[in-house]
Write a structure and sequence with these properties.
The chain is an all-alpha fold. It is 74% helix and 0% strand. The protein has one domain (5-128): Four Helix Bundle (Hemerythrin (Met), subunit A) (Up-down Bundle). The radius of gyration is 17 Å and the shape is elongated.
Length: 134
């Protein structure tokens, strides 16, 4: 049985996503690196949206990371885990895009899709992995 190598690489992308979003939120001339937590740096709705997407990326990543790592440890079906991981990434990118472009309903659906993918990977790890009950 192979390992979910694509999912492992998607872990890296998911780990970097919050940093890209916070860069978008704070990259402007008014940003004061001496006071990085000052909300005054988020002067426009777009910057506030980017910061919101950043915070949500930090919240969503641990469940996904734990699910992928557990799936790898328990030898869950690699192709299914990789597919769910690709879908998770697509949903997370759509989520960020919807946040940045002000589409709250579609953003919520994207969040739901990504969360469902994380949970699906976790269920695969718990039910199909090595040592799972027969």
């Amino acid at each position: 049985m192979t390992e979910p190598f694509a999912a492992y690489w998607i872990l890296l992308v998911g780990a970097l996503m919050p940093y890209v979003l916070v860069f978008i939120a704070k990259a402007n001339r008014d940003y004061d690196n001496a006071d990085p937590r000052n909300p005054a740096a988020l002067t426009t709705p777009f910057r506030r949206s980017a910061y919101g997407a950043h915070l949500n990326s930090l919240e969503a990543f641990p469940l996904f990371a734990a699910a992928v790592l557990l799936a790898g440890l328990r030898r869950a079906p690699a192709e299914a885990v990789d597919l769910a991981a690709w879908l998770w990434l697509a949903f997370r990118l759509a989520y960020a895009a919807c946040y940045l472009t002000g589409r709250p309903s579609l953003r919520s659906l994207s969040w739901l899709g990504a969360t469902a993918c994380s949970l699906a990977i976790l269920v695969m790890a718990l039910t199909h992995g090595a040592g799972a009950p027969s």
